[in-house]
């Protein structure tokens, strides 16, 4: 699927492997020779992201400059001539919301990080942001108001991101699209019934809107409990 899609940049989240454990078939992906991997320090099998690029970035950084969160290997940022591409795997609030407070601290630190980047050049944020922003973004909003990914606090965090000059590319282009989900639990045949959540986003600086061609959810692509999304920009 990756070879057919032929992206200029491929962002992967929850890779759960360190640099040395990246499978050889991923290392050898045609057209994506520049690969940058982050993993959780001392916690194999936890978190992790990867950013793969067709052309070599000008610069690559890891983390968001916050020691509380950077050890988890959740963010890789690649600088290109016209924009920053940020690959992110945002923390889950956890069953029973046991990690909601750390999640809120991450959201605040991450927004500050994105704003620092945006002050230099436009930003494209791609990743599993672990929040369904509005009721339209999940199948059963009423039943999930107290569940991780749909708490008022997490939704407000995403609202603050949008209020800071960033745009949810899919919802900008398709404001009324229903049943547009990127995650389905493995339980109960949820994917076959499209009982899902939209947790994966391509968020961009407002001044990139004129470059936005499309934002697609590739819901027919199997292989994970999430599906890929594709942002098409003319930059």
UniProtKB/TrEMBL annotation:
GO terms for molecular function: DNA binding; DNA-(apurinic or apyrimidinic site) endonuclease activity; double-stranded DNA 3'-5' DNA exonuclease activity; lyase activity; metal ion binding; phosphoric diester hydrolase activity. The active site is at 89, 128 (proton donor/acceptor), 226 (proton acceptor). Keywords: Cytoplasm, DNA damage, DNA repair, DNA-binding, Endonuclease, Hydrolase, Lyase, Magnesium, Manganese, Metal-binding, Mitochondrion, Nuclease, Nucleus. One of its GO terms (biological process) is base-excision repair. The record marks 130 as: Transition state stabilizer. InterPro entries: AP_endonuc_1, AP_endonuclease_F1_BS, AP_endonuclease_F1_CS, Endo/exonu/phosph_ase_sf, Endo/exonuclease/phosphatase. Its EC number is 3.1.11.2, 3.1.21.-. This is DNA repair nuclease/redox regulator APEX1. It comes from Origma solitaria.
